[in-house]
Structure formats: C-alpha cells, structure tokens
Amino acid sequence: MIIILKENADSAQFEALKKWLTGQNVSLHISEGIQQTIIGLIGDTSHIDLDIIKQFDIVDDVKRIQEPFKNANRKFHPLDTVVEAGGVKIGGGGFTVIAGPCSVENEAQITAIAESVKKSGANMLRGGAFKPRTSPYSFQGLRAEGLRLLLEAKKITGLPIVTELMDLSQLDLFADVDVIQIGARNMQNFELLKQIGKCDKPILLKRGLANTYQELLMSAEYIMASGNKNVILCERGIRTFETYTRNTLDISAIPALKTLSHLPVIVDPSHAAGIARFVVPLSLAAAAAGADGIIVEVHNNPSCALCDGAQSITPPVFDDLMEKIRHILPFRCKLPQKD
Ligand code: PEP
Ligand code: MN
Q1: What are the residues facing 213 on neighbouring strands?
Q2: Are 97 and 122 in contact, with CB atoms under 8 Å apart?
C-alpha cells in the first residue's frame, strides 16, 4: 500500500499518521521528494482500512498495490488448486460437468434425471433441497426429504452431489453431501461463510447478483481464512441493464478470476440466461473461455418443473451439449499470461 501526502504536509500531522500506521503492525518506507512525500507500507496490509487513512487531512491519496485477499490470491499460490469432491476433480485443466434439476421434486424425478445425466457423461449431480426463492409463496424445496432423495440418487448412480445450504442450522443434514453450494444471495453472508469455513467439505461459492470479482474473492477469503481451502468459484450471471435475459453471463469473469486466483472457476449458464435455448451456446462459450466446468439445470419435464423450468434443458439437449463440449475442449483457452 502506498500513501501520497499533500504538498507541504504539516509535520505534527505527519508524526500522528506515522504513529497510527506503525500501530498497524507494518513498517514504513518514507520517500521525501521536493514536492511530495510518499509512504510505502511493508508487511500485511490486508486488515488496514483505506478509509481511515483518507481521514488524515494530510493524505492526498491511498492505493493498494496488493489485493486484500491472501489465501485466494494466485500471487501466493501460483499453481491451480484442484478441489476433489466424491472422487471427482475440479480445476487444474479438466472440465467438470455438474447437472440436475433446479429442485428435487420427488423420487422418480431426481432418480430419472440423475440416471440420464450420468449416461450422458455428467460428473456430478445438482439438485436444490433448500431453495432461496424471491417469493415466500413459491415452492421452497423439499428440505430434509429433498436431501434424502438426492442421497438415494447418489447411491443409485454413484454421482457425487452438490446442493445449496442456506442456513447453518441445516449443516448437520449435509454430512453426506459432497459439495455445499453457497448461493448468490448468501455470497456475503459473512457469518455463514466463517462457519462453513470450519468444515472440510468443498464449497461451491456463487457470485452475487451485483458483486465484483474482488468481493467474490473476499467471500472466498472468509471461507479459506477459517481453514477450508476447498473453494470453487461460480460465475452465474450478474444484473445489468439488459432485461431480455434473466442475468448477463460475464464471460470475462473466467480469465479475470483465474488471473487473480488459483481457485477453480465454473460457470452456471442456466441462472445467467434464464432461457433454456441459450444454455448450450453459453456452456460452449464457458468451455472455450477456459472455465473449469459448468453447472447446468436439466429437467425431464421442464414445463411442469416446480422451479426454473424456463431455463432447464431436457436430457436429450443435455446429451447433445456433452457431445459438443467434447469437441470444444481440445481448442479451449489456457490461463492468459499477464502483460
Ligand atoms: C441454484 O443454483 O439453484 C440457485 C438458486 O442459484 P443462484 O444462487 O446462482 O441464484
Ligand atoms: Mn435454479
């Protein structure tokens, strides 16, 4: 971090600032020019609040030259992290496909979808048991029963399962779940992040509807700082001025997050588009742009789905998508080198 002082800074205020800074456990490198003085902070500055420094009258500007996230930062961990979940590897050059319905609805539904996506080559099964719905009157998920049915489908197909946890009180029910999803709406539920950071299960962390890359990485940092290093980042579309699609898939998030962080990055084309026929092209774009995988909503009867039917592709379309992905993978981008 560097602090640029105003011209002719008052010496008493300069001393007060230096005293405050040394109290933050960093050492100072002071460069006094003819016109301006610059203070360089050496050491871990991630806990220092820029806004407090700006409150000192003599400060002209403050800049971070290092990102405030350490655990998630590629600078401190140059190699890709590979997260292992139920025998499946995510990250490090492979392409992992997670597929399944938005919500678990009944035994026949989840079993049939699990069997068909497995046959098409999916690596993991998704399905919501606890659903974050905009309306309290919408289907809220089968909750504990949904988890039981997902575990049954796992037993039948051998596919590891990914499902969303919305509240810590549900954690005990997730003992046999392979990947815990933290949804977009909970991305900045910091208490939840701290607590799930204490468990050792892989966490699929979805980007919030209106959050920056840095905010997503700071949320990953919460989980990792509590001890759990198995974090998978997920770009699922963000709010923009466009209303034709449910959200806007930010393809830049793939190379950007992979430049900033060593964590695997997967893409959710279903919640990004909100429109089933866009899911194949967006999935292919994600694969081509270097994503470590996708999480896709598949339903055997989308028009009757209890949640997100409009964005759910059918098993035959999913089968076709898998075939297309296999053709794209040899040509996909590797992590772009920094200029
Ligand atoms: C989901 O995956 O079912 C979901 C609700 O996703 P998001 O949190 O990205 O909206
Ligand atoms: Mn959904």
Answers
A1: none
A2: yes
The residue nearest atom 9 of ligand 1, judged by CA position, is 184
Percent of the chain beyond pLDDT 70?
Answer: 99
* Residue 51 neighbours by CB under 8 Å, 6+ apart: none
Does ligand 1 come within 6 angstroms of the Cβ of 183? yes
pLDDT digits (tens, 9 = 90+) for 168-222: 999 999 999 999 999 999 999 999 999 999 999 999 999 999 999 999 999 999 9
User: For residues 3 and 81, what is the distance between their CA atoms, to the nearest angstrom?
Assistant: 34
What's the CA gap between 58 and 5, in Å, rounded? 6
Residue 95 scores a pLDDT above 70: yes
Tokens representing residue 199 in the block: 């468990």
How far apart, in Å, are the Cα atoms of 223 and each of 146, 197, 272?
A: 26, 4, 24
Distance separating alpha carbons of residues 241 and 243, to the nearest angstrom:
6
Asked if pLDDT for residue 67 goes beyond 80, the answer is: yes
Instruction: Please choose from 166, 179, 181, 312 the residue to mutate so as to test ligand 1's pocket, defined by most ligand atoms within 8 A of CB.
Output: 181
Q: Are 67 and 260 in contact (CB under 8 A)?
A: yes
35-55 per-position pLDDT tens digit: 788 898 888 888 899 999 999
pTM: 0.90
> How far, in Å, from the CA of 336 to the mean position of ligand 2?
31
Q: Which atom of ligand 1 lies nearest, measured to the CA of 234?
A: 9
Q: Residue 296 in contact with residue 271, Cβ under 8 Å?
A: no
CA 129 – CA 140 distance, rounded (Å): 8
